[in-house]
Design a protein that fits this description.
Number of strands: 2
Helix content: 55-70%
Largest sheet: 2 strands, antiparallel
Shape: globular
Length: about 525
């Protein structure tokens, strides 16, 4: 009997179109270079027409689009090219973190730990566990982008599942869930400070009642919502659409799922002991008043959240991977001398060539876009559009979320974007009766939900590099089509949760109401 081909629904056909059209684009390196050139041309055109806006944070300052093809602009292009590459945010984070991960991977620690992990929990919960880990990783700033997607690929590959689905689930959790956590993070401190400064324009006395945990209750519940949504999207939409993996990185599942040997178990035990000891030593850097990486202002919580320790998480995480990887390698005889360590590190860096090439191109594009002020102009016009719509109540909040989601496609940095938008929207919504805390949370929902589909998000390039290890000819269209369901479902379900929260009048955090009194 002939096999009946299952008919795709509208959404699947839409994703196929996104993938097809996106993959018609050139190689990501070429695309980023092309976007950089387009930004230069667009800056010249907009400059000719004297496109400008009033700076949202200073009404006395007029922001004009800079012509990057002027004599001054061309000088900037050549003088900044090296700095744009070196200063590309993910470059140092990725390379330093990968030095630690590389030892853990090359000695076999990660593979052994993953097998132990897979044996310890039901296979049906692995997807949810991966998304949950991604959401929680935001407490470690950007390190989750580097650590979890490749681990997700290996876990799924070991189980005979498509590795791209593992990368997608982890990336959705890390990036889409960046504004959800069971713990407070540097993101909470950074955004709340900007919010308080904007709110002080209307009511400085009200600002004195605000705190860094202004969204804490809501982001706690958000962790479980996003974990469930990410789990559903991965297993019901993304993975079925990807189908069976037939790439060259096929594995023998029986071999990969073989019980751990005595030597591997011994290595894991010693590695675990080293992690505990290292963790205690790291804690000593911040928990006591005399700790060298502790902050020196505010409450005990603030001295940890806003501290050199939180700004040093990338090298700390690299060290916490390196030490147990080294210990495991010594126990299992994978490391016999310092030459083995050097060789493992060199092999790890050799695999980062694609990312480094992409980092150069992406760094130029993002720097040119920021220098031209085009992103700032788009943001101000977006704000003016929302004002002219004259919305109120829940439609106003939804409108704000949608405008922010669109702006986020052009301005990747959460702090830079909020620093631009908060002086506009926080006072407007306060005057309409909505608290600065609510405006901040609505912003965070939109910002996180569309992070995973914009090439302007600084870590988009490394996700492409990770994915191309398993799908060699993968293009931006494929990655966007895989991540789009997460973005849409996160945006819709998270917004619905906020609406329910508003209707119930629940506080968003300690002393953080929905309405502005």
């Amino acid at each position: 009997m002939a096999e009946v081909k299952q008919r795709k629904n509208f959404f699947q056909r839409f994703l196929d179109f996104i993938e097809w059209s996106g993959n018609k684009l050139p190689h990501p390196f070429t695309l980023f270079i092309g976007l950089a050139i387009l930004t230069l041309i667009l800056s010249a055109v907009l400059s000719i027409f004297d496109v400008s806006v009033v700076h949202p944070g200073d009404s006395s300052e007029i922001v004009e689009v800079k012509n990057l093809l002027s004599a001054e602009g061309i000088e900037y292009i050549f003088l900044s090219m090296t700095d744009n590459f070196i200063g590309f945010a993910p470059l140092g984070v990725v390379l330093i973190t990968m030095l630690g991960i590389g030892i853990a991977e090359r000695t076999g620690l990660i593979a052994a730990a993953l097998r132990a992990f897979i044996f310890s929990i039901p296979k049906s919960l692995i997807t949810a566990g991966l998304v949950f880990a991604g959401v929680m990783s935001s407490v470690a700033s950007d390190a989750g982008y580097v650590v979890l997607p490749p681990l997700g690929a290996v876990i799924f590959l070991t189980l005979g599942r498509h590795p791209l689905a593992g990368i997608a689930a982890a990336f959705a959790g890390v990036s889409g869930g960046f504004s959800a956590n069971l713990l407070l993070s540097g993101t909470d401190a950074m955004l709340s400070e900007i919010t308080m400064e904007a709110a002080a324009v209307i009511n400085p006395e009200y600002v004195e009642t605000m705190n860094v945990a202004m969204n804490y209750y809501f982001i706690i519940v958000s962790v479980f919502l996003l974990t469930l949504v990410g789990w559903f999207v991965t297993e019901k939409i993304v993975e079925p659409r990807l189908g069976a993996y037939d790439g060259k990185f096929s594995v023998n599942v029986d071999d990969e799922m073989a019980p751990l040997s005595k030597l591997e178990k011994k290595g894991l035990i010693y590695a675990l002991i080293s992690i505990i000891v290292s963790g205690i030593l790291v804690a000593l850097l911040v928990v006591f008043p005399w700790s060298p990486l502790r902050g020196d202002e505010g409450t005990y919580l603030n001295t940890i959240i806003q501290s050199p320790f939180m700004q040093s998480l990338v090298p700390i995480i690299a060290i916490l991977f390196f030490i147990p990887g080294f210990v495991y390698g010594r126990v299992t005889k994978e490391i016999k001398s310092d030459k083995d360590v050097a060789n493992h590190l060199a092999e790890t860096m050799a695999t980062m060539g694609t990312f480094i090439v992409l980092a150069f191109a992406a760094g130029q594009f993002i720097a040119f876009f920021a220098e031209s002020n085009i992103g700032l102009v788009i943001g101000v016009y977006g704000a003016e559009l929302l004002e002219t719509l004259n919305l109120k109540g829940i439609p106003l909040i939804i409108g704000f979320i949608l405008v922010t989601a669109v702006i986020n496609l052009f301005i990747g940095s959460a702090s830079a974007k909020w620093a631009m938008m908060a002086p506009i929207f926080v006072p407007i919504l306060m005057q309409l009766g909505y608290s600065p805390e609510l405006t901040t949370m609505a912003y965070r929902i939109a910002d996180s939900s569309t992070n995973i589909i914009t090439p302007l998000m600084t870590y988009f390039a490394i996700i492409i590099a990770f994915s191309q290890k398993y799908v060699k000819d993968l293009g931006i269209g494929t990655l966007v089509s895989v991540m789009l369901p997460y973005s849409l479902f996160f945006l819709v379900m998270w917004s619905l949760m906020l609406i329910v929260w508003m209707m119930l009048g629940l506080p968003l955090g300690p002393n953080a109401p929905i309405l502005y009194p």
